[in-house]
Each structure stands twice: as C-alpha cells, then as structure tokens.
Design brief:
Elements (H helix, E strand, L loop, with lengths): L1 H7 L3 H13 L1 H11 L7 E7 L5 H14 L4 E7 L8 H9 L8 E7 L9 H12 L4 E7 L3 H9 L2 E6 L12 H4 L4 E4 L7 H18 L23 H8 L9 E3 L8 H18 L1 H29 L2 H12 L5 H11 L5 H5 L4 H4 L1
Bound molecules: guanosine-5'-diphosphate and magnesium ion (MG).
Length: 361
C-alpha cells in the first residue's frame, strides 16, 4: 500500500493518483477513505463560490500566494460543472495557476461536478479528505455559484466565501438572496471597476434584510433536508445549537478585492483565519464536522440504496413503474413499496397494519 504512504507524505503524484482512483470507482473511494479518515480533520476547508466570471479562480490564485507567504500548505479543487477535459474556462485557469506550479506546498486539481444531482460529487468530498490527510493546511474549493453546488459547498466547507463583482448582473442582482445565507465572508471582487460602491451597498442591504428575517434558530438551513436523520447520534441539532447560542455571533464582513493585482487579498486571508478561530472557539467547528459526517453517511446510504434497488429490479421494470405513476395507474408511494418489496425490503405499511402485530411481539 505505498499510495497511502505517498499521500501521508504529501507526494503530489500519490495524491493525484489517489484522487483519480476515487473518481473512477466508488469502491476505490471506500478503500481510500477507510484508510485515511482517522488522519483527517485538521485542514481548513474554504469554499469559494459566486457567479461565472466574477474572478473566483483569479482570487484563489492570489489567496494561495498570500497563504504560502504565511507558510501554509494550500490545496485547490476547482469544481467545474462540465467535464475537466472540455471546460473552456480551465485553460485560462491553468495559465493562471502556472505561477503556483513547482511549489510543493501547493496542489491544484479540477474535478467535474457531474455524477451527483447537480451538486458536488461524492468524489469531491472524498478528494477533500485525501488532501486533508496529506497535511494541507487550507483546502480551497472553487465552485460556480449556479445551483446546487453552492449550497453543497456550504455543508462541505468550514468557511464559505461568496464572491460578487460589479457589472455582472446590471439591474438584476447577480447574487441571489439564497446564496447570502451560506456566506461567512462576502467579497466584492473587481473593485477596480465602476459600480463597486453600488454592489457593496446592495449586498449590505441584502445582508441586513436577511438578518432581520432570519430567526435565531436558522443556523444552518442548508442541512434541513436531512433533519429526519439527525436522531442517529442522539443529540439533536437544536440541542447542539443551544450550546453555542451564548457565544458571540459571527458578523459577515463585506470585503473588496482586486484579484488581478492582489489588492485586499491579504485582508481576506486574515478574515478566513479569523473565521476558523471563531468556529473553533464557539464550538461550531465541531458542529459543522458533525453535520458533515451525518450528511456524508446519509449520502452514502442513499447512493447505496439506489444502487441496490437498481440491481434488484431490471431497468425496463423500473421504467414501466415510473410510466405507471406518470400516467396515474398507480401512485408514487405504491410504486416505491413495489420496488422495496422486489429488493426484499419489508413494507413500511406493514409496520402499521394490525397483521404485523404478531411479528413485532
Ligand atoms: N478588472 C478586473 N478583472 C478581474 C479581476 N478579477 C478577475 N478578473 C478578470 O475576470 C475574468 C474572469 O476571471 P476568473 O478568475 O476566471 O473568474 P471565475 O469564472 O469566477 O473563476 C478574467 O479575465 C480575469 O482576468 C479584478 O479584480 N479586476
Ligand atoms: Mg473559475
């Protein structure tokens, strides 16, 4: 198993190969993560998201230089919604990243986001774990703020930086209100361009509005989809939140940067570090780890479950079942029950029917 030694030693080739293995095959991912999980948990995972063209890649590049000057080892994952082989923007990114290459303290990788429902793929979280185990201090994950990936990054990252730039949306807000909820740090990049003040003002207004409408319990809305799974670990999320509600809250700063010159990037790096400290002191670092662990388990269960279902029921039968629901011959609950039964699972309805009484006793 010399790949694992290679990853531990931070060998770029070993890391690159391991990530490739993960991308190729979920079974490989299982082997890799089982071996490395215990050695993860140190890296600061920072999500960088925002509309296309706002300067995410340029900023990631500058940010990396700043962190390198501070002796941090930095890994970069650029999640491209298209294939890494066809993504046009990537060529420019490669040119930009060139001044970072040759530095053993920097690792750059682009990954496709396909493979899960529009969001971050399972292999992206696995790759993050690999880089964590490889000892990188900071893992910057660039995602295009264009859908599920931006919400996913908030559940994956410790710190989420949301970028905007003047002149992207004109009168229409280029950043949607929803994305502000996931921001720990807001950045208006291209501060050298006209309209910066207006963009900053409107972001500050939206932040203020959000603060007024958000209830104190909405700490992490992005996790609500899985709330029914929360009791897995006993302590509910609310219980956990109560432990931190007395700690001072984080105020989302609105920063200005010029990624092509590096202006303001050092302050951004400061704020990212401050946010890490805030998370650790307030106990939220552990909470986010807990939530991420839960989401990861749920995601794996879901993948596994769907795969089992697919293996148990031939595709044409599954298709026919879907058609039956679409054409109102049966309802979706019955269809799901049929699939469960075909895969050998007990019906949920049976639990509540009187006939199952003797079985439970
Ligand atoms: N004027 C100006 N241009 C910038 C700035 N940051 C990035 N750009 C340019 O904006 C374009 C898109 O940048 P890129 O980093 O690829 O954006 P991404 O799609 O968000 O990753 C490139 O041509 C950059 O050179 C900035 O602060 N000021
Ligand atoms: Mg980019």
């Amino acid at each position: 198993m010399d790949w694992i030694t290679g990853v531990r030693q931070g060998s770029p080739r070993a890391i690159a190969r391991t990530i490739t293995r993960i991308e190729a095959d979920p079974v490989q991912a299982q082997t890799v993560i089982s071996a490395l999980h215990a050695e993860t948990g140190q890296a600061h995972i920072v999500g960088i998201t925002g509309p296309p063209g706002c300067g995410k890649s340029s900023l990631v590049n500058e940010l990396t230089k700043v962190f390198r000057l501070r002796d941090k080892r930095v890994a970069i994952i650029a999640v491209d919604p298209t294939s890494p082989f066809t993504g046009g923007a990537l060529l420019g990114d490669r040119v930009r990243m060139r001044d970072l290459s040759g530095d053993a303290g920097v690792f750059v990788r682009s990954m496709a986001s396909r493979g899960s429902l529009g969001g971050l793929s399972r292999s992206t979280s696995a790759a993050i774990r690999v880089l964590d185990a490889a000892g990188f201090d900071i893992i910057l994950v660039e995602t295009v703020g264009a859908g599920q990936a931006e919400v996913d990054i908030a559940t994956t990252a410790h710190t989420t930086v949301v970028l905007d730039a003047p002149g992207l949306g004109d009168d229409i807000q280029s950043i949607k209100a929803g994305i502000l909820e996931i921001a720990d740090i807001l950045v208006v990049n291209k501060a050298d361009q006209p309209g910066v003040k207006r963009t900053v003002k409107s972001l500050e207004m939206m932040l203020q509005l959000g603060l007024e409408t958000a209830s104190a319990t909405s700490l992490d809305k992005t996790h609500d989809a899985h709330h029914s799974f929360a009791p897995l670990e006993g302590g509910s999320r609310n219980e956990q939140n109560q432990t931190t509600s007395t700690v001072a809250n984080w105020t989302v700063p609105v920063l200005q940067t010029v990624a092509i010159t590096g202006q303001g990037v050092s302050e951004l790096a400061d704020r990212i570090d401050e946010h890490r400290q805030f998370l650790q002191v307030s106990g939220q670092w552990a909470i986010r780890d807990w939530l991420r662990s839960r989401d990861e388990i749920v995601g794996l269960l879901r993948d596994r479950f769907i795969a089992e279902m697919a293996a148990a029921v031939p595709e044409e039968d599954r298709r026919r079942l879907i058609t039956d629901v679409a054409e109102r011959r049966i309802d979706p609950y019955t269809a799901a029950e049929n699939l469960l039964a075909a895969a050998g699972y007990r019906s949920a309805l049976a639990e509540h029917s009187p006939r199952s009484g003797d079985r439970r006793a």
